[in-house]
């Protein structure tokens, strides 16, 4: 993967790598993995929001927890 970044971003990455004691390769790999995880989480959240919900009282009843909470 080859990308172009601004000089300002490059300086920020250089500084972060130096202060964190990591290589630029590791830094970029970690950043890409973090972004992929965020996108997967967002996709999962979107799917979960479409699922039907039910009232808490029904869940308590179905789990036979009446009087225990």
| Cα shape | elongated
Q: Report the sheet with the most strands, covering strand number, pairing sense and barrel closure.
A: none
Helical content (DSSP H or I, runs of 4+): 55-70%
Written as H for each helix and E for each strand, in order along the chain, the element string is HHH
Q: How many β-strand runs?
A: 0
Total helical elements: 3
Strand proportion: under 5%
CA radius of gyration: 23 Å
From the N-terminal CA to the C-terminal CA, the straight-line distance is: 54 Å
Mean pLDDT: 93
Class inferred from helices and paired strands:
mainly alpha
Low-confidence stretches: none
3D architecture notes:
This protein is mainly α. It has helices at 7-20, 24-49, 56-62. The longest helix has 26 residues, at 24-49. The protein starts with 6 loop residues before the first helix and ends in a 7-residue tail after the last helix.
